[in-house]
């Protein structure tokens, strides 16, 4: 019984350590340190580099846990939009929610751009995120997509208009505010869906 309690205690401590390392990694990304070293992450978590490697084994394993954090964070901001609502209200709700979510994942997306070439975990994360957005678009605008002469192309265009890449061009490269980026997205959705009423 005593041995079992000790084992349980070690498991809980190991899990707390893993959580603190992921939290430190996320915090560094939010603060703008987009490519932190293992040493920087360990210091931010208040542990040794050896402890970090014992907890995760390699950076890909840490990336996987950090990606899981961002996906959960993104899911928490998701809103259910009734496909039966009038089109204008669906566009407004979708674009407002997408703006909140893109603002939230911005640090992770910027960091991933720097490291995707050498990380299969980050490449997989980007593909999964794109597919999730595409599914949401297909659900919220199902009626319009179904009546379009080119449904696949319309879905692609809506995805592009609400993608991180488009958001980054407007916000990071052109210096547009969050409100201006959201307005541009809404304008694109309205124009793309106008002929599908």
From TrEMBL:
Q: What is this protein called?
A: TetR/AcrR family transcriptional regulator
Q: Gene3D superfamilies, from UniProt?
A: Tetracycline Repressor, domain 2
InterPro entries found in the cross-reference section = Homeodomain-like_sf
């Amino acid at each position: 019984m005593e041995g079992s309690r000790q084992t349980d205690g070690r498991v809980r401590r190991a899990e707390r350590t893993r959580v603190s390392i992921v939290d430190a990694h996320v915090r560094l990304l939010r603060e703008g340190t987009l490519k932190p070293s293992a040493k920087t992450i360990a210091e931010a978590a208040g542990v040794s580099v050896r402890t970090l490697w014992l907890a995760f084994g390699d950076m890909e394993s840490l990336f996987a846990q950090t990606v899981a954090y961002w996906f959960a964070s993104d899911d928490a901001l998701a809103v259910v939009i009734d496909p039966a609502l009038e089109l204008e209200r669906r566009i407004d709700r979708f674009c407002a929610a997408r703006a909140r979510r893109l603002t939230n994942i911005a640090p992770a997306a910027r960091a991933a751009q720097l490291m995707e070439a050498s990380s299969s975990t980050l490449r997989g994360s980007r593909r999964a995120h794109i597919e999730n957005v595409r599914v949401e678009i297909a659900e919220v605008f199902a009626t319009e997509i179904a009546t379009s002469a080119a449904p696949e192309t319309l879905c692609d265009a809506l995805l592009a208009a609400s993608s991180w890449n488009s958001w980054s061009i407007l916000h990071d490269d052109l210096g547009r505010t969050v409100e201006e980026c959201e307005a541009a997205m809404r304008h694109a959705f309205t124009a793309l869906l106008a002929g599908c009423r």
